[in-house]
Each structure stands twice: as C-alpha cells, then as structure tokens.
C-alpha cells in the first residue's frame, strides 16, 4: 500500500518539501473511520503513549497513596521542556515517595526549552535527570515501584515489575501482542514496542471514552485527561504544540507527541482515537497532520477554528522576521 503525502512545506509560491504519512482514526469499538496509508504497519510510538504508561501508577493506587496532584499526574504523561516548574514538580513527586533525583534512570540532557537552557547555563549549573523531558514519567515509575513495595533500582529494564505492568496495560489498551521481537529501547532507556497504528488509535479511542476497559480503568483515564486539560503546560511547555492544543480545547482534545513524527490523540466527544506517523520522522509535519485531523472530526467554534488554522498552517519566518513560507496539510488532509 502506498503512503500519501499529508503535509508540504512551501517557500514563496512553490512547494519545497513534502512529507508522507500514515493515519488511523478508529472508534472505541475498533471500527475504522479513516485510514491513510498502511495502518497495520508497526511503528515505535515512543513518547506518544505516556498516558497509557501512566495507567499502572493510577490503577495500583500509588498516585493516591503518595498524594500526587493533578499537575503531577499531568507531568507523569509529559515530554516537558525542562523549565524550572517541570524540574521542581518531578522532584516533588520523588520526595513524596521518599526518593530523590538519584533514583531517576532516564539520563540527563539540557532542557528542550531554549529559554530554560539559557537560564541554566547562565547560572553556571549543569542539567540533571530532572531536566530530562521524560523525568515526570520516570518519577511516576519510581512512585509506582515504591507503591508496589518494589525496589525501584533497574525500573527501566523490561523484566522489572514496573515495565511488566506497563506492557500489560499497553497490550490491553491496544489489543495487540507486544512481543519481544518488536521491542526496542527508547531514548529514556525504557522498552518501546512497535505497534500497529490501528491498535494505537483504538487505545486512544478508549482513552477518550473509557469504553470497553472496565469501570476502574475508565476512571483512571478520566483523571489523566482531566489532569492534562487542567495543566497543559505540564504536558509540554511554553509555546509547545501539545500545550497549545490542550490549552485551546481543554478536555475536548487529549494529544501527545512521540519522537520520529508520531502523534496519538483522543477526541472524547466524538468517541474517536487518532494515531499517525510522519514517515520521515519530522515532528513539525506531524503536528500539521494532527491539527488537520482535529479540524476534520471535531465541531469547532469560530475562535477555535481561527486558532487551529494557525496551528495547522504554521508560518516559516527567517532570522530577519520575514515570512518566507509555511507548512500546510496536503493530499487527503488538505
């Protein structure tokens, strides 16, 4: 099956680059509403599935045992920019479990947010694991391990109970068998499993509706959605696409980026889950694809439509502030 061009980059009046993609839009009963390209091809979802990875934290009771706030729950599902509030919140989560940043096994990198990186460098400090964009998720894993009475050491390994619980939740939500043959290692060192986009879309239809997952899991998913809607800054950061989208729509849209051009989203009011991949891994193009799909399936007010237009057609501006082109949906998403 050929994969269509779903986004294009313009310069002046000409198309300069094109991005092929694959899309699956599914309802909570597993019915396909839209398929573009080969939606059965497994892809590594990377960070797009952090809401699913947070389910054991919620369902085990660990989140309540340690009194995690909605902002902290949102951070557990985040790929944050490493801004001060992000790092402070991850540290607070660990402290509630009687741990500190020394327990984190995600590694350290400079903040994704340029302003945060400049401020950290200006202060003469070096980044720690708290600045890693996955530190909230990892703080949640440490809380889960402690809540289960497990030693958190080695929690990133596939055989640690934390990752076994995460894998089970992923399999139940996607309806897919996540085999060892499909396992890779994510950037933050936890296992990542190649999963068909159709299964990912089904999982996010369930994230948005709670349909077919049982009462307790539906309640956990509702808490995760509410936390992200109330604290979209925690899910990404200043000026980031996910924060802008959920800041605009609140609980009407839950969306989460993953590395290499993956996006997953839930549209609760229409009962749909979306999973997509920009095949060349370009995150900017993947954002445009997702914005176009939200426009297609979600009823919009005039202010929402205006704001979404800016997100689905971002301008490209040069160093002198001159608009030189843009990115826009293409092909069946145009």
UniProtKB/TrEMBL annotation:
A matching Pfam family: Asparaginase_II
Alphabetized InterPro entries for the sequence: Asparaginase_II
UniProt-listed PANTHER family: L-ASPARAGINASE, PUTATIVE (AFU_ORTHOLOGUE AFUA_3G11890)-RELATED
Protein name, as recorded: Asparaginase
Annotated source species: Alsobacter ponti
